[in-house]
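Hey,

The postdoc asked me to send both predictions to you directly instead of through the lab channel. I've kept everything plain text so nothing gets mangled by the mail client. Protein one:
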Amino acid sequence: MDAQRSLHRQLFETINKEMDDDDFRSFRSIAQGKGLRPGEASKCNTPSDVLDKLQRKGKIKLGCYQALKDIFAEMEQEGLIEEVTKTERKLEEMGCEISDEIPQPYDNLKRQASFPGETAEEKRRRFRAQSSSSSLDSNPSFERQISPTAEQRRGSMTSYWQFDSSASARHPLRRQSSSRSLPRSPQSSFDDNDVTREELEEREDCYKQGRGYVLIINNFSKEREASENDVEGLSDFFKKIGYKVQPKKNLKKDEMMDALDMAKTEIQKTAKGKNKYSCFICIVSSHGDKEGVKSYDNQTVSIAELQVPFLGDSLKCMAGSPKMFIIQSCRGKQKQPGVDRADEEPGDEGQLDVSDVMSSATTPRDADVLVAYATTEGFQAFRRVGEGSWFLSKMRAVFNHKHQSDHLMDMLTEVNDRVSHRTAIGSKPAKQMPCQVSTFTKKFYF
């Protein structure tokens, strides 16, 4: 029994160490809907505090972690689910009974017992519905409360981050990905100032809705551990919303250019049919430098080379339609340090007042193009073993939860914010700042 309890405690310690600030806020928020009251959740300053509260209320206990796995599934943390599953396997080998039931909180036992004749499964469903009714709405300042930094929680934990320009030392503890399909959080209903999707079609400030074509190129897939997680997660998202997805991996430069040409050809073929594409998205995950991304034969492919086949004069059927290039790679060898925020001072901005600008029905060749970089020029981009890249993993999470309510630039702004709060722990803590270059002329909704 002591060995079982020791494994139970080790699981809690692992979860506490594995979570960064963003993970913790999500964990605390979802746990509030799984049995914790708003007041109880607001007093939790670390993942350990949340785990302890859930355990004290009887939601999780030795050998019974289903509530914990449900929370991690909503967080889309496959690595943490795998850690729980590994602990369950070890406990089972020691003779501990493993249950997938969710215990009833002690303060709800009386309410649960007031429905005689219910089956255990009916009680469980009813309790879930009751507990989920508790939401952040009752405590709107909850997410704004200050929590300890990830560095403070981890203490002296050794760094196990990797960056995409070269191999780095790995921490012995790795999040392992799971091939199982995880349940997704319920999707929010579309809300753009109470405008429906049908009404959105009539708006002149939005791109037309339709089916998109997505080309995903993942180079150095074995060397860049966990990059497959990014590809699979984004593929799942785009397939879910009805886009055509074409994944490729480990392409030499000429093969990359061929893949781009094949995408262009297919878009042209469907240009006049009912299945025509409304947008093009190219995602490249690879090593890189300030000149561009690396092909599998270690040649540089510039961002301009990726774009050329799809610009207005090369692919006229997509003129006026959005083209996106999402680049997950380093753009240099420097590690970006964190800096204290200073008060902003007003600057001198020149203004050009032109009253007789002539409008035109033509479109610039470079219009309607967006390039989303994982990091600013000159700096490294990071991956987490077992999870995937900071940039694409946060993008996947934001897209899944916000695509029905937010347009693309708003979602990318949230991705910027989430990634900016992460810190790579090592001899010198490092940050990462995604950025976008856009010539979009309208709002884009998936």
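Protein two:
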Amino acid sequence: MLVSYIVFEGDSVVIAKNTKFSLAILLSNLFIVFVGIGLVIPVMPTIMNEMDLNGSIMGYMVATFAIAQLIVSPIAGKWTDRYGRKIMIIIGLIIFSLSELLFGLGTAVEVLFISRILGGISGAFIMPAVTAFIADITSEQQRSKALGYMSAAINTGFIIGPGIGGFLVGFGTRAPFFAAAILGGVAVVISLVFLKEPERHIYEETNTIKNKTSFKRIFAPIYIFAFLLLFFSSFSLASFESLFSLFVDHKFQFTPTDIATFVTGGGLVGAIAQVVLFDWLTKNFGEIKLTLYCFIISALLVFAMTVVNSYLSVMITSCIVFIGFDLIRPALTTYLSKVADNEQGFIGGMNSMFTSMGNIFGPVIGGLLFDFNFNFPYYFATIVLVFGIIISLFWRQPRSA
């Protein structure tokens, strides 16, 4: 059933209709995009062999995606505030569809790199716009639940995607890429027809942050703690995930089926936690305390991965560790959306930028450390998480919030 809510701002009343319907479209779009991203994972080794590519080139492709997203995210965040949420989502979906089509058609490595650049740009357009859209159509009381659903939609799509991709490979090596392009096109049509540009909450300016340049605004106390914690959490998670299969292969001689089971199980547990627990946890602890507790849990469990030695203990540890990681980002995103006032797009862009930085440096540094000892990446990720704990201890709710 479609619902409405009323937000009181000073003497004015802003009424937003069909909140659930708009949210369902946004979550469907994210789900479709991340199913499309997950679709291609099973076929990447085959593409690598078909085109005689080495591991370094494949690694550069992953980095290219993240670097493009890193560079474009701040610009896309500004455009989201200036030109609107809907148009940025639609453009991002079109670019996503084109990037997957190019990868499916590409027979030269240069085309594949162009595809990955476009993929990074599409992510930079979509994520800040969706986050800002959700902030516009929800009250502060509803927002934590909605952003929890957003993270769950992303995780679930990414979990289901590889399974569907493995099935589609039977129709041809490039079939998953074409399927992802079609899914992106479907999302474009859905958004064009059903998504309506939201009415924005208009806040009276209570600080001088907006008058600063974008670079200086990053270091404002109201933002910088959350940005640093986003970087630390994404760095640690990217390092953990990107090397997990190599780690358990070297240490426990796990099979690909074992690895897929752990990754899928951990992802599902994290997605369920976001849907079932996140709203309750934020209401009872607040975003700042929840972030601190999640950093502590994640640090303990990442370190525990280096000392556990049985199949069952690895399974339990790897599943639970994702709960901590998967609650950190929506907690930080919820906090930022509440303090951003009229800068939802800017904050969404910065959120994406700092996350991209972690996604770039985490696997790179982790990979270098792995060559010395397969435990070293997890030791270093634990140290980074400890820095996050220290920052969280000094982080306080700003008065303007």
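Summary for protein two, as requested: Residues 1-16 have pLDDT under 50 and may be disordered.

Thanks,
C.
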